[in-house]
Amino acid sequence: MEVLKEGFFGSIHSVYSIAIIIIPIMIALQVLKDFKILDKITKPFNFLSRIFKTSDEAVLPLLVGIIFGLSYGAGVIIQSAKEGELTKRDLLIITIFLATCHAVFEDTLLFVAVGANGFIIIGTRLVAAFILTCFIAKKTSVVISLNANNK
């Protein structure tokens, strides 16, 4: 019984810990979006949407996932999807990139703390994610155009 109690309260604590980080991030992002500041922040990275053949709206969730990781980036991705800003293809491309390369700073700092070269870690992860995502983005464009022709 004690194990269940510890598990329950541990889970509640974990959800609370995540919520106190995600909720302020979501509020801040909404305020930045309302004042059109996010457009200015993401604009320099819109080249990614052209490379991956996604909408410009896919850039923000991608950046949040790269910087903050999947746990926190998921909130932005889900919100963007619910608001109808992202297509299914956008979601696929974002997911593929972030599966390969997420929480870049956090993870890298953990490995640097035990003696790894941070530049090699970041470089390898970004290059691998970029190559994989470009490859799949190109293939999904072909599949999407073939499906469109069959209708």
Automatic annotation (TrEMBL):
It comes from the Bacteria. Keywords: Membrane, Transmembrane, Transmembrane helix. The chain crosses the membrane at residues 12-32, 58-79, 91-113, 119-137. Residues 16-105 form the Nucleoside transporter/FeoB GTPase Gate domain. This is Nucleoside recognition protein.
